[in-house]
Design a protein that fits this description.
Layout (H helix, E strand, L loop, with lengths): L3 E4 L2 E4 L10 H5 L2 E9 L2 E2 L2 H14 L8 H14 L5 E8 L17 E8 L7 H4 L1 E7 L14 H12 L4 E5 L6 E4 L3 E5 L5 E3 L10 H13 L4 E2 L4 H5 L3 E6 L3 E8 L2 E2 L7 H14 L5
Parallel strand pairs: 7-8, 7-14, 11-12
Antiparallel strand pairs: 1-2, 1-6, 3-4, 3-5, 5-6, 8-9, 10-11, 10-13, 13-14, 14-15
């Protein structure tokens, strides 16, 4: 069956879907995107993702392409037309089509909206097979990383560096301070040498991850202590455990960084517990 995309008001065979060459997303990366996990026909953390979309758009002074209820209908319709019940849905909003000029169009143009979806494997059950290796990599991104912009070239280069070294993710750090920020496309967490769960506090240096936010809520509900505080590369290397979170990673153990084992090189007990905790969240706390 052909994949169906939504492009500016039309549902099209994805092979035939096109955007204008003067779309500002193509010309300048002038746009915002979101990725949402569809589990058994239900969008996981849908409200968090749509709220982050609205916030990111507001930060670059771009309106929502349609009311949230209408957008939700489009997302569900794309999933329905593609007969996908377990997948990843991608949506992108750009400033639209205008004559190439760095400044915003003198006359406002309609925002452009593209939505696609693809199937993914079933939710992971074996946490040990889910574990990955990472590398550390300088954070070369712009200063407003809290905005989920389509400008992802530094992230692309970091992920490629990881792949070339046989790893799955790059853990980014500020060269001037040696402080860890996040993964190239994930939130990064450690269980530090004292057994404390830690991830960087939210600010302009990192993206406010929706999976991060959902896990934080689950931790609080379960009475599990954690700290939102920056940590250095040196602290990372002394950590007992490490893991990443995202809409595609869920809770994913990191057992090696730069070729060196994290802790004893095996999935630790804290990460195992959080993997199970988040699995219940994805499944609607149905166990």
């Amino acid at each position: 069956m052909s994949r169906i995309a939504y492009v500016n008001g039309r549902y099209l065979d994805q092979r035939l879907a096109e955007v204008n060459i003067e779309d500002r997303g193509y010309q300048f990366g002038d746009g915002i995107y979101e990725v949402v996990h569809l589990f058994q026909g239900r969008f996981v953390d849908e409200d968090r993702h749509l709220a982050r979309l609205e916030r990111s758009l507001a930060e670059i002074r771009l309106p929502m392409p349609m009311p949230r209820a209408a957008l939700r209908h489009v997302l569900l319709e794309v999933a329905r037309r593609n007969r996908v019940t377990e997948g990843l849905l991608y949506m992108q909003v750009t400033r639209g089509v205008a004559r190439r000029d760095h400044a915003f169009p003198a006359r406002p143009v309609p925002p452009a909206l593209v939505v696609t979806i693809r199937r993914i494997p079933p939710y992971p059950r074996d946490i040990d097979r889910w574990a990955i290796a990472c590398i550390s990599h300088p954070d070369l991104r712009w200063a407003r990383r809290d905005i989920k912009s389509v400008n992802l070239l530094p992230n692309v280069l970091a992920r490629q560096a990881a792949r070339e070294q046989g790893a799955a993710e790059a853990i980014l750090y500020e060269e001037a301070t040696g402080l860890v920020t996040e993964g190239a496309a994930t939130t990064f967490w450690i269980v530090d040498e004292h057994g404390v769960i830690r991830t960087r506090h939210l600010d302009h240096a990192i993206l406010p991850g929706c999976t991060r936010g959902a896990l934080v809520a689950e931790l609080r509900d379960a009475g599990i202590g954690f700290v939102e505080r920056e940590f250095s590369l040196a602290e990372m290397r002394r950590a007992r455990e490490a893991f990443i979170t995202s809409a595609t990673s869920f809770v994913k153990p990191v057992t090696r960084i730069d070729g060196t084992p994290v802790g004893d090189g095996r999935v630790g007990p804290v990460t195992r517990r959080l993997f199970d905790l988040f699995a219940r969240h994805v499944k609607g706390n149905a166990g």
